[in-house]
Amino acid sequence: MTSPMYTHSVPVFKQMLTALKTILAQASEHAAAKSIEPDALLQARLAPDMFPLLKQVQIAADFSRGISARLAGVEVPTFEGKEKSFADLDALLVQTLAFLDSVNAAQFEGKESSEIILRAGTPKEKKLSGQAYLTSYGLPQFFFHVTTAYDILRHNGLPIGKRDFMGAY
Length: 169
What we know:
The chain is built from 7 helices and 2 strands. It has helices at residues 4-7, 10-33, 38-42, 53-72, 86-102, 130-155, 162-166, and strands at 115-118, 126-129. Strands 1-2 form a two-stranded antiparallel sheet. A hairpin with a 7-residue loop joins strand 1 and strand 2. The protein is mainly alpha-helical. Helices cover 60% and strands 5% of the residues.
C-alpha cells in the first residue's frame, strides 16, 4: 500500500510543477513573440506588496522540496535562489522534479504523526504533526505560490486557462 502522505504530496507537486514549467515556457515564447522584455513578466506582481513571478516560482519549488524532504526524513535540498531568467526557472524546476523523483512512498510510511518543527530555535517556532504539516501548512503554501505565478502570467496577457494550470493528471 502506498502511503497517503506520499500520494497527497509528491505526485501532486510533480503534476503542478510540470504544468508550471510548461506555462513558463509558454510565457518565454510569448514574450519573444510579442517583443516583451522577459523581466516585464519575471518581475510582474499582482500587488505592490506581493512577490514577483520569479520569487513565486522559487517559493513553490522550495515548498515542494522542503515538504517532501521533511516527510521522507531526508535533508532538505537548498538552492541559492539566484534565478534571473525563464531558463534559470526551468533549470530550477528540472532540479526540483529530479529531487521529487528521488524520494519514494516507503519513506513516507507512518509520517502522519511525526513531529515537524518549523523555524526551529526562533520565537516563531511551531511544532506540527506530519499530517497537519502537509494538509494545513505545506499544501496551502505550495498552491498559493503556484496559483499566484499562474495568475501573474494570466493577468499579463498569457493566453492560458485551467487546463494549463492543471497540467496532465
